[in-house]
Each structure stands twice: as C-alpha cells, then as structure tokens.
Amino acid sequence: RPELILKVMPDEMFCDDTEKIIWNLIYDRATCDVEFDPVRRLAAELLGRFPSCSSKMSRLISRDLSDGIRAVRVQLYAFCNACMIGEKRMMVKRDVLVSMYDSVLEILKLALCKHDDEYRKLQRGCIDTLACCVRIHFLYHDEEHDSAVTMKIEEISEEEEDEDEKGGVSLLNRSLQLLLKSDEYNTPFRICVANAILTIQKMLLDSSKKKELERLARSCVVDIPRDIAEQNASLFGALLRLNFFACYHSKSAARTNATRLLIVSTISIQASTAPQVRLEGLKLLGVLLSSLETMPSDLPDGLLGKMTASLRSLANMDPDRTCRKLAENLVGLIQH
Length: 336
Prior knowledge:
It is built from 18 helices and no strands. By secondary structure, it is mainly alpha-helical.
C-alpha cells in the first residue's frame, strides 16, 4: 500500500510541492466509507505531517456535521497529529488554534445529543482536540506571560475576550470559565471540557514534561461555586478531580490555595448522596494534607474538628471500601 511507503518517508518529503500532488488522494482515502479503519487512521496521520494541515483542517472542519461524522473525526484526528508534530517548532498558528477550539465546542454540543458508538467516538475526538488546542495555546501564552501565574480564576471581561488572539486570555482560562460561570452549556458538555484539561495533564505526564506540567497545574486550581457544590454532583466531582490533579502535580498550588481547598474538600466528604463526590473529596484532601507541613493559620474555627469527625464517620460506615480505607488513612495523617 502507498500509505505504508509514505509513513517511512522523512519529514522533508511532506512539503508544499508534494501536498499539491497527493493531499486530495490521502484525504479521500482517510474519509472513504468502505476503507478499513487502520488504513483511514494511517491516512489521517499522514495528513498531519503536512505543514499546512492544521490551518486546512480548521477551515475544512464541519461545525454542523454536514460532511458526516467520519469526515469530522478524520479532520479532528489529523489536526491533533499536526499539533503533536508541529509543537516543538510552533508550526500551529495561534489564530488557527482559537478557530479550531471554537469549532470543536460547537461540534461537541451536537456530539452529546446522541449516545450511539459513532457519537461517543466523536466526543472523544472533540475532547482530544480541545486538549491539543488548549495545550499549545498555553505554551504560546506561557512564553509571553512567564511571570504571570494564574492561581485563582477571575472574571474575564468582554474586552479581554476580544484580545484572546493577541494572547490576552489563554484558551485554558476560557475553558475554566466554561466550567464555572457558563449557563449556556449543560453538565455533560462541561464535564467534557474538564476531561479535556485532564487529558492535557496526562499528555504532559506521559511525555515527562514535568516543568510544563507544574506550570499548567498551577493555573488549573479553580474556585467551586456554592451552587455547583450543592446542586450538581457530577460537575462538582469533575471540578474536585481537576483540583486534585493540580495540587498533585504542584505543591505550590496546594499550599497557596490550601484554606479554600480544605473547606471545599470538607464539604465534599459530607455529600451523603454522592459517593463519587466523597471519593474525589477524599483524594483532594489527601494530597492537601500530604503537601502541608502545618495547617493554615486562617482556617475557619471548627473546620478541622468537622473534617476529623466526617473522616471518622466515613472510615466506619461508608458503603464504599475505597472511601473507608482512604478516610481511615487520613484520620491517621491528621492525628500525627
């Protein structure tokens, strides 16, 4: 097969002159309904090796799925591959990232409308693409604003949003705003955005980029609004998980935000009707306690007592074995 020959060709082969000859042939193979999945996947990978792939896919992407789900999945996969290849050389332009990010948000809304296998694959493709866009945009933004570290999510004004393409607001901050302050999107959509941010952290962990991972983690600590904590257990659990990963990979994030995160984790372990929230709260509490040498001086009166009492109750009576074990270990950690 010609795709296998192209796979072993050097990057120099994938230039503008070659693209004019074989781009359409490879794209047709990638989107062909009667082709085998491995062939389509390889063809999409080959598209990602062309320098212009990311900009082409941002223009080709079908926001309304009019090209069909398979074609959109190919476009997303090729774009992600182009991002991974072009990351070191900063080949993917900032405006392309912003355009693709906006398109994928629209596609994700449609992908969540149905629950068959093809739509689930499309959801996964949207999450991975959002992760790629946010990650590379964060690299641009981080290089230009190296001294600025986002430890707390603040309101983003309309004027700041207009400056996004100039680096004024990172796509990471936009994503966090979608999680916390947007009534336009439903809970499944917002959980997908949270999973995209967690996917970035997994990408960096797998590639052993610890410094970049810590910088990202410091920017991912979020204040969880009271209405979410009280009324939306699924989203509450996702935000707790996000804070856990942030504090796990950055002790400075844990220490700087210790008081408010200890408060929210104590609230979460008292969630009697949401076992997943209790588990995520216990994990967050564990990473906080292991990062702190002493309790914060501004901790509200009585909070430590409530925390200890709740942990003892969970250690004795929680129906989930993992929660009981975690709670038991944390009681021992507090007493020492």
